[in-house]
Write a structure and sequence with these properties.
Elements (H helix, E strand, L loop, with lengths): L2 E7 L5 E4 L6 E4 L5 E5 L6 E3 L2 H4 L3 E2 L2 E2 L4 H4 L4 E4 L9 E4 L5 H10 L5 H19 L1
Helix pairs in contact: 3-4
Length: about 130
Amino acid sequence: MNLVANRIKTPDGTILQSFHRHDYKTYTDANGYSYMVDGGIDYLRRGGSGLIVAPAEEMSVYEDAPHDIIRTALVWGTLGKDGKGPREWRVIADLDTDHIQAILDTQQHIRATVRSIMQNELNYRLAQYVD
């Protein structure tokens, strides 16, 4: 099953998410233990001193989840309309419809799972207007 979001919640409620391959994120929890996630949607990697003593909650999402969960989990890195801004990670539910369509039209390199989810998001939005 393909990953859609690679994330954990530490005991103090902090959500750590790895957005792309080799996006190594660490955090020292309020309990003093460290936690780590890595791998984006390519692989799951976990580590840190807290995983045995005070386990984190697994919050990863896979492609077989309902679309209403996926749309608030899958992120896209955007540099803004002019392409010159700082990278901002946004869930696809928060992307404009035109933006999603532009991604589908121009970004041929994205994996089939992400392409399919984005198309599902467009279909989801269309169904909301019809009902």
